[in-house]
Write a structure and sequence with these properties.
The chain is 63% helix and 6% strand. It has 372 residues and is mostly helical. Helix 4 packs antiparallel against helix 5, helix 5 crosses helix 7 and helix 11 packs parallel to helix 13.
Length: 372
Protein backbone atom coordinates (compact mmCIF):
# COMPACT_ATOMS: atom_id res chain seq x y z
CA UNK A 1 0.00 0.00 0.00
CA UNK A 2 1.41 3.37 -1.04
CA UNK A 3 1.99 6.15 1.43
CA UNK A 4 -0.56 8.36 -0.34
CA UNK A 5 -3.26 5.68 0.06
CA UNK A 6 -2.48 5.27 3.75
CA UNK A 7 -2.73 9.01 4.14
CA UNK A 8 -6.18 9.06 2.48
CA UNK A 9 -7.41 6.31 4.83
CA UNK A 10 -6.20 8.24 7.87
CA UNK A 11 -7.84 11.43 6.62
CA UNK A 12 -11.12 9.59 5.96
CA UNK A 13 -11.02 8.08 9.46
CA UNK A 14 -10.41 11.49 11.04
CA UNK A 15 -13.27 13.01 9.04
CA UNK A 16 -15.59 10.19 10.15
CA UNK A 17 -14.52 10.61 13.78
CA UNK A 18 -15.10 14.37 13.52
CA UNK A 19 -18.60 13.80 12.11
CA UNK A 20 -19.44 11.37 14.94
CA UNK A 21 -18.21 13.82 17.60
CA UNK A 22 -20.14 16.63 15.95
CA UNK A 23 -23.36 14.58 15.92
CA UNK A 24 -22.93 13.72 19.61
CA UNK A 25 -22.37 17.39 20.48
CA UNK A 26 -25.41 18.49 18.48
CA UNK A 27 -27.61 15.86 20.16
CA UNK A 28 -26.33 16.86 23.60
CA UNK A 29 -27.01 20.53 22.91
CA UNK A 30 -30.51 19.75 21.66
CA UNK A 31 -31.24 17.72 24.80
CA UNK A 32 -30.04 20.60 26.97
CA UNK A 33 -32.30 22.97 25.05
CA UNK A 34 -35.31 20.72 25.55
CA UNK A 35 -34.53 20.21 29.23
CA UNK A 36 -34.24 23.95 29.70
CA UNK A 37 -37.56 24.45 27.93
CA UNK A 38 -39.27 21.80 30.03
CA UNK A 39 -37.84 23.10 33.28
CA UNK A 40 -38.81 26.66 32.41
CA UNK A 41 -42.46 25.60 32.00
CA UNK A 42 -42.69 23.57 35.21
CA UNK A 43 -43.61 25.42 38.39
CA UNK A 44 -42.33 23.29 41.32
CA UNK A 45 -44.55 25.11 43.80
CA UNK A 46 -47.74 24.77 41.77
CA UNK A 47 -48.75 21.70 43.78
CA UNK A 48 -48.85 23.74 46.94
CA UNK A 49 -50.49 26.81 45.46
CA UNK A 50 -53.51 25.37 43.74
CA UNK A 51 -55.50 22.24 44.25
CA UNK A 52 -54.98 19.34 41.86
CA UNK A 53 -58.54 18.22 41.36
CA UNK A 54 -59.76 15.27 39.31
CA UNK A 55 -62.13 16.48 36.61
CA UNK A 56 -64.14 13.33 35.95
CA UNK A 57 -67.43 15.02 36.73
CA UNK A 58 -68.92 18.23 38.02
CA UNK A 59 -68.87 18.18 41.80
CA UNK A 60 -72.00 19.16 43.78
CA UNK A 61 -71.77 22.20 46.02
CA UNK A 62 -70.09 21.53 49.36
CA UNK A 63 -73.10 22.55 51.46
CA UNK A 64 -75.36 20.31 49.40
CA UNK A 65 -73.09 17.32 50.05
CA UNK A 66 -72.78 18.14 53.77
CA UNK A 67 -76.55 18.30 54.25
CA UNK A 68 -77.18 15.16 52.22
CA UNK A 69 -74.61 13.13 54.16
CA UNK A 70 -75.99 14.41 57.45
CA UNK A 71 -79.50 13.33 56.49
CA UNK A 72 -78.25 9.96 55.25
CA UNK A 73 -76.52 9.33 58.58
CA UNK A 74 -79.79 10.03 60.38
CA UNK A 75 -81.50 7.45 58.16
CA UNK A 76 -78.95 4.80 59.25
CA UNK A 77 -80.15 4.90 62.87
CA UNK A 78 -82.28 2.02 64.07
CA UNK A 79 -84.97 3.73 66.15
CA UNK A 80 -85.72 0.50 68.02
CA UNK A 81 -82.43 0.52 69.95
CA UNK A 82 -80.74 3.80 68.90
CA UNK A 83 -77.87 1.94 67.29
CA UNK A 84 -76.59 2.63 63.80
CA UNK A 85 -76.40 0.16 60.96
CA UNK A 86 -72.77 -0.47 60.10
CA UNK A 87 -73.29 0.07 56.37
CA UNK A 88 -75.59 -0.08 53.39
CA UNK A 89 -74.33 -2.88 51.12
CA UNK A 90 -75.26 -2.87 47.45
CA UNK A 91 -74.48 -5.27 44.60
CA UNK A 92 -75.12 -2.28 42.41
CA UNK A 93 -76.50 1.11 43.32
CA UNK A 94 -80.07 -0.22 43.37
CA UNK A 95 -79.98 -3.69 44.94
CA UNK A 96 -79.09 -2.85 48.54
CA UNK A 97 -79.51 -4.21 52.03
CA UNK A 98 -78.62 -2.92 55.47
CA UNK A 99 -75.72 -4.48 57.34
CA UNK A 100 -76.33 -5.32 61.03
CA UNK A 101 -76.23 -2.56 63.62
CA UNK A 102 -72.81 -1.91 65.12
CA UNK A 103 -71.96 -0.67 68.60
CA UNK A 104 -68.77 0.90 67.29
CA UNK A 105 -70.14 3.77 65.20
CA UNK A 106 -72.56 5.76 67.39
CA UNK A 107 -70.02 8.19 68.89
CA UNK A 108 -68.47 8.97 65.50
CA UNK A 109 -71.94 9.86 64.20
CA UNK A 110 -72.67 11.98 67.30
CA UNK A 111 -69.44 13.88 66.69
CA UNK A 112 -70.27 14.38 63.00
CA UNK A 113 -73.69 15.77 63.95
CA UNK A 114 -71.95 18.18 66.32
CA UNK A 115 -69.67 19.24 63.45
CA UNK A 116 -72.74 19.78 61.29
CA UNK A 117 -74.39 21.85 64.00
CA UNK A 118 -71.35 24.15 64.15
CA UNK A 119 -71.88 24.77 60.44
CA UNK A 120 -75.67 25.10 60.49
CA UNK A 121 -76.33 26.72 63.89
CA UNK A 122 -79.64 24.83 63.95
CA UNK A 123 -80.90 24.81 67.56
CA UNK A 124 -83.23 21.89 66.85
CA UNK A 125 -80.21 19.87 65.80
CA UNK A 126 -78.32 20.91 68.94
CA UNK A 127 -81.24 19.87 71.15
CA UNK A 128 -81.27 16.41 69.54
CA UNK A 129 -77.52 16.11 70.10
CA UNK A 130 -78.00 16.99 73.77
CA UNK A 131 -80.77 14.41 74.12
CA UNK A 132 -78.51 11.77 72.62
CA UNK A 133 -75.65 12.73 74.95
CA UNK A 134 -77.85 12.21 78.01
CA UNK A 135 -79.21 8.95 76.60
CA UNK A 136 -75.74 7.63 75.76
CA UNK A 137 -74.45 8.65 79.18
CA UNK A 138 -77.13 6.71 81.01
CA UNK A 139 -76.67 3.67 78.80
CA UNK A 140 -72.92 3.78 79.41
CA UNK A 141 -73.44 3.15 83.11
CA UNK A 142 -74.83 -0.34 82.53
CA UNK A 143 -72.28 -2.80 83.91
CA UNK A 144 -73.01 -5.61 81.46
CA UNK A 145 -70.74 -5.17 78.43
CA UNK A 146 -73.30 -6.76 76.13
CA UNK A 147 -76.07 -4.41 77.23
CA UNK A 148 -74.05 -1.24 76.98
CA UNK A 149 -74.84 0.10 73.56
CA UNK A 150 -71.76 2.14 72.80
CA UNK A 151 -68.46 0.23 72.68
CA UNK A 152 -66.27 2.02 70.16
CA UNK A 153 -63.09 0.46 68.80
CA UNK A 154 -62.04 3.76 67.27
CA UNK A 155 -61.46 7.36 68.38
CA UNK A 156 -63.90 7.81 71.22
CA UNK A 157 -62.70 10.09 74.01
CA UNK A 158 -60.91 12.12 71.35
CA UNK A 159 -64.28 12.97 69.77
CA UNK A 160 -66.03 13.53 73.10
CA UNK A 161 -63.28 15.72 74.55
CA UNK A 162 -63.38 17.93 71.46
CA UNK A 163 -67.10 18.40 72.02
CA UNK A 164 -66.71 19.00 75.78
CA UNK A 165 -64.36 21.93 75.15
CA UNK A 166 -67.14 23.80 73.35
CA UNK A 167 -69.02 26.36 75.48
CA UNK A 168 -72.26 25.39 73.74
CA UNK A 169 -72.42 22.55 76.31
CA UNK A 170 -72.86 23.51 79.96
CA UNK A 171 -71.32 21.61 82.88
CA UNK A 172 -74.18 19.10 82.95
CA UNK A 173 -73.55 18.00 79.37
CA UNK A 174 -69.79 18.15 79.78
CA UNK A 175 -70.11 15.68 82.66
CA UNK A 176 -72.29 13.42 80.55
CA UNK A 177 -69.68 13.47 77.78
CA UNK A 178 -66.98 12.60 80.30
CA UNK A 179 -69.16 9.81 81.62
CA UNK A 180 -69.49 8.28 78.16
CA UNK A 181 -65.73 8.49 77.68
CA UNK A 182 -64.70 6.78 80.90
CA UNK A 183 -67.42 4.13 80.92
CA UNK A 184 -67.33 3.06 77.30
CA UNK A 185 -63.71 2.31 76.53
CA UNK A 186 -63.78 -0.61 74.12
CA UNK A 187 -60.97 -2.47 75.86
CA UNK A 188 -61.41 -1.51 79.47
CA UNK A 189 -64.26 -0.58 81.72
CA UNK A 190 -63.46 2.17 84.22
CA UNK A 191 -62.91 -0.19 87.16
CA UNK A 192 -60.59 -2.45 85.12
CA UNK A 193 -58.51 0.50 84.04
CA UNK A 194 -58.15 1.80 87.60
CA UNK A 195 -57.08 -1.62 88.81
CA UNK A 196 -54.43 -1.86 86.11
CA UNK A 197 -53.13 1.61 86.91
CA UNK A 198 -53.00 0.88 90.62
CA UNK A 199 -51.19 -2.43 90.13
CA UNK A 200 -48.84 -1.03 87.47
CA UNK A 201 -49.75 -3.90 85.11
CA UNK A 202 -49.64 -2.00 81.84
CA UNK A 203 -48.77 -5.16 79.90
CA UNK A 204 -52.36 -6.32 80.35
CA UNK A 205 -53.84 -3.57 78.21
CA UNK A 206 -52.24 -4.50 74.89
CA UNK A 207 -54.47 -6.26 72.35
CA UNK A 208 -53.15 -9.70 71.50
CA UNK A 209 -54.19 -9.66 67.85
CA UNK A 210 -51.57 -7.81 65.77
CA UNK A 211 -54.09 -7.29 62.99
CA UNK A 212 -55.77 -4.74 65.19
CA UNK A 213 -52.89 -2.36 64.53
CA UNK A 214 -55.14 0.60 63.69
CA UNK A 215 -56.90 0.25 67.04
CA UNK A 216 -53.55 0.46 68.82
CA UNK A 217 -53.10 3.82 67.19
CA UNK A 218 -56.55 5.28 67.85
CA UNK A 219 -56.24 4.21 71.48
CA UNK A 220 -53.10 6.32 71.83
CA UNK A 221 -55.04 9.44 70.89
CA UNK A 222 -57.87 8.46 73.22
CA UNK A 223 -55.54 8.13 76.21
CA UNK A 224 -53.92 11.48 75.38
CA UNK A 225 -57.40 13.03 75.43
CA UNK A 226 -58.10 11.36 78.77
CA UNK A 227 -54.80 12.76 80.11
CA UNK A 228 -55.95 16.29 79.23
CA UNK A 229 -59.52 15.76 80.36
CA UNK A 230 -58.95 13.97 83.67
CA UNK A 231 -55.63 15.69 84.45
CA UNK A 232 -54.03 12.33 85.21
CA UNK A 233 -50.43 11.65 84.18
CA UNK A 234 -51.08 7.90 84.23
CA UNK A 235 -53.14 8.22 81.07
CA UNK A 236 -50.22 9.90 79.32
CA UNK A 237 -47.96 7.09 80.53
CA UNK A 238 -50.33 4.55 79.00
CA UNK A 239 -50.48 6.50 75.72
CA UNK A 240 -46.70 6.62 75.50
CA UNK A 241 -46.42 2.91 76.26
CA UNK A 242 -48.95 2.11 73.55
CA UNK A 243 -47.05 4.36 71.15
CA UNK A 244 -43.76 2.55 71.73
CA UNK A 245 -45.46 -0.77 71.06
CA UNK A 246 -47.24 0.49 67.93
CA UNK A 247 -44.11 2.17 66.55
CA UNK A 248 -42.05 -0.99 67.04
CA UNK A 249 -44.74 -3.03 65.30
CA UNK A 250 -44.83 -0.56 62.39
CA UNK A 251 -41.05 -0.60 61.93
CA UNK A 252 -40.66 -4.34 62.44
CA UNK A 253 -43.28 -5.20 59.83
CA UNK A 254 -42.32 -2.44 57.39
CA UNK A 255 -45.95 -1.37 57.00
CA UNK A 256 -47.08 0.90 54.20
CA UNK A 257 -47.51 4.54 55.20
CA UNK A 258 -51.07 4.38 53.84
CA UNK A 259 -51.84 1.90 56.63
CA UNK A 260 -50.44 4.13 59.37
CA UNK A 261 -52.40 7.40 59.21
CA UNK A 262 -53.81 6.97 62.72
CA UNK A 263 -50.30 6.37 64.06
CA UNK A 264 -49.39 9.73 62.51
CA UNK A 265 -52.26 11.38 64.36
CA UNK A 266 -51.31 9.62 67.59
CA UNK A 267 -47.74 10.88 67.26
CA UNK A 268 -49.04 14.42 66.68
CA UNK A 269 -51.30 14.19 69.73
CA UNK A 270 -48.36 13.08 71.87
CA UNK A 271 -46.25 15.94 70.51
CA UNK A 272 -48.96 18.47 71.36
CA UNK A 273 -49.24 17.01 74.86
CA UNK A 274 -45.52 16.75 75.63
CA UNK A 275 -43.82 19.17 73.17
CA UNK A 276 -41.30 16.37 72.54
CA UNK A 277 -40.14 16.95 68.95
CA UNK A 278 -39.27 13.27 68.58
CA UNK A 279 -43.00 12.63 68.19
CA UNK A 280 -43.33 15.43 65.64
CA UNK A 281 -40.38 14.13 63.64
CA UNK A 282 -41.83 10.63 63.47
CA UNK A 283 -45.24 12.00 62.48
CA UNK A 284 -43.67 14.12 59.74
CA UNK A 285 -41.82 11.10 58.36
CA UNK A 286 -45.02 9.03 58.23
CA UNK A 287 -47.04 11.87 56.73
CA UNK A 288 -44.46 12.69 54.04
CA UNK A 289 -44.26 9.04 53.01
CA UNK A 290 -48.05 8.86 52.89
CA UNK A 291 -48.32 11.94 50.67
CA UNK A 292 -45.74 10.48 48.29
CA UNK A 293 -48.03 7.48 47.69
CA UNK A 294 -49.85 7.25 44.37
CA UNK A 295 -53.25 8.58 45.42
CA UNK A 296 -54.96 6.92 42.49
CA UNK A 297 -54.20 3.60 44.21
CA UNK A 298 -55.74 4.57 47.57
CA UNK A 299 -59.19 3.38 48.63
CA UNK A 300 -61.83 5.63 50.19
CA UNK A 301 -60.79 4.83 53.77
CA UNK A 302 -57.13 5.66 53.09
CA UNK A 303 -58.03 8.91 51.34
CA UNK A 304 -60.29 9.79 54.26
CA UNK A 305 -57.39 9.20 56.65
CA UNK A 306 -55.12 11.41 54.54
CA UNK A 307 -57.80 14.10 54.46
CA UNK A 308 -58.27 14.04 58.26
CA UNK A 309 -54.53 13.91 59.00
CA UNK A 310 -53.90 16.89 56.71
CA UNK A 311 -56.67 18.82 58.48
CA UNK A 312 -55.12 18.03 61.88
CA UNK A 313 -51.75 19.30 60.64
CA UNK A 314 -53.34 22.47 59.30
CA UNK A 315 -55.35 23.13 62.46
CA UNK A 316 -52.70 22.31 65.06
CA UNK A 317 -49.19 22.25 63.60
CA UNK A 318 -48.76 24.67 60.71
CA UNK A 319 -50.83 26.83 58.36
CA UNK A 320 -48.54 25.73 55.52
CA UNK A 321 -50.71 25.68 52.43
CA UNK A 322 -49.52 22.22 51.41
CA UNK A 323 -51.71 20.62 54.12
CA UNK A 324 -54.73 22.51 52.84
CA UNK A 325 -54.02 21.48 49.24
CA UNK A 326 -53.39 17.80 50.04
CA UNK A 327 -56.58 17.65 52.10
CA UNK A 328 -58.71 19.19 49.38
CA UNK A 329 -57.10 17.03 46.70
CA UNK A 330 -57.94 13.91 48.73
CA UNK A 331 -61.49 15.10 49.31
CA UNK A 332 -62.04 15.87 45.63
CA UNK A 333 -60.91 12.38 44.67
CA UNK A 334 -63.33 10.92 47.20
CA UNK A 335 -66.21 13.01 45.88
CA UNK A 336 -65.47 12.13 42.25
CA UNK A 337 -65.04 8.41 42.83
CA UNK A 338 -67.29 7.75 45.80
CA UNK A 339 -70.16 10.21 46.22
CA UNK A 340 -73.62 8.96 45.29
CA UNK A 341 -75.72 12.06 44.77
CA UNK A 342 -78.97 10.08 44.74
CA UNK A 343 -78.38 8.43 48.10
CA UNK A 344 -76.52 11.38 49.54
CA UNK A 345 -73.63 9.26 50.85
CA UNK A 346 -70.13 8.07 50.04
CA UNK A 347 -69.42 4.51 48.94
CA UNK A 348 -66.36 2.32 48.41
CA UNK A 349 -64.50 2.47 45.10
CA UNK A 350 -65.08 -1.19 44.25
CA UNK A 351 -66.81 -1.29 40.86
CA UNK A 352 -68.38 -4.70 41.49
CA UNK A 353 -70.21 -3.71 44.68
CA UNK A 354 -70.79 -0.65 46.81
CA UNK A 355 -70.39 -0.31 50.56
CA UNK A 356 -71.75 2.86 52.12
CA UNK A 357 -70.07 2.73 55.54
CA UNK A 358 -71.67 4.76 58.30
CA UNK A 359 -68.50 5.63 60.21
CA UNK A 360 -66.55 6.66 57.12
CA UNK A 361 -69.36 8.98 56.07
CA UNK A 362 -69.34 10.46 59.56
CA UNK A 363 -65.59 11.05 59.39
CA UNK A 364 -65.87 12.72 55.99
CA UNK A 365 -68.20 15.33 57.47
CA UNK A 366 -65.16 16.91 59.17
CA UNK A 367 -63.25 17.19 55.89
CA UNK A 368 -66.29 18.58 54.09
CA UNK A 369 -67.19 21.15 56.72
CA UNK A 370 -63.61 22.37 57.21
CA UNK A 371 -63.04 22.77 53.46
CA UNK A 372 -61.91 26.38 52.93
Amino acid sequence: MTNSRKLLIIIAFLILLFIIVLIVLIQKKEKQRKDKLINSTIQPTTYFNESILPNDKTQPAKKEIVDKVNNWLKSMKNSADDQYYYALLCSNKKNCQLAPTDKQVSIAVLWSQYEHYKESGDETELNQIKQDIVKYSKRSEIEDDWLRVYQPDFWHCRFLYEMAKDSVFNDEYKNHLKNICQNNNYFLARIDLLNILNSNSLDKIFPKDPRRFAIYNTMISDFVSMYHWFDNNEFLKIAETYFINAKEYYLRNNLLPSDSAYLTTASLDLYLATKDKTYLGFANDLYNRFTDTDRNALDINQLTELCLTSQIYYDNISKNRKYFVIKNDSLSRIINKGFDDNKGAFHSFNLNSYSYETRNNALLMKCLIDQK
